[in-house]
Amino acid sequence: SQQGEEDPQALSIQEGENATMNCSYKTSINNLQWYRQNSGRGLVHLILIRSNEREKHSGRLRVTLDTSKKSSSLLITASRAADTASYFCATDPQGAQKLVFGQGTRLTINP
Amino acid sequence: DTAVSQTPKYLVTQMGNDKSIKCEQNLGHDTMYWYKQDSKKFLKIMFSYNNKELIINETVPNRFSPKSPDKAHLNLHINSLELGDSAVYFCASSVNVGGRETQYFGPGTRLLVL
Asked: Is the pLDDT of residue B99 over 80?
């Protein structure tokens, strides 16, 4: 069954603006990961946040995790045209031994 | 150096045919996966193998048969292809089994069943 759901499904912003994507999930998790998929390519890992962490940074990326609300957000600051891609959250449900992916947010950065 | 490679990249075939997709990883990982991504971009796990042993079989029709000859290779054979099998199939690998690990994805195999 689908675990993560991203919101919005599509987002279009101007270069230089910040982009925020949200992910909600249903069951208790060990960690949550975010991946990027460029058109016609495989997924690339961006960042992992553990269930006991609330915020994590990596370059222009900031991820938050609220386990009480079962939600996470990915913020990309100072967006660039190269950030145009689909972004997926993936949860690691407790006891499942697998990642469960959402449907992704399609981000378009307009020059 | 390609970390996770898949062949072929594109596969167009007729309904009812049998086809195979191959995957190889040179990362030294113990765990490999097959995922299916449908036209709505929904990515769903099909199988995982850890050191050649099947760990997850996600209620996939038995027309799909994975084979892992060694821990660096995980192939997917599909019998009697159906229209609904059209999708992009991704191979991935990770150091160990489970969702705590970063997964490394191949470029995908785009399967179109006519």
From this structure: no
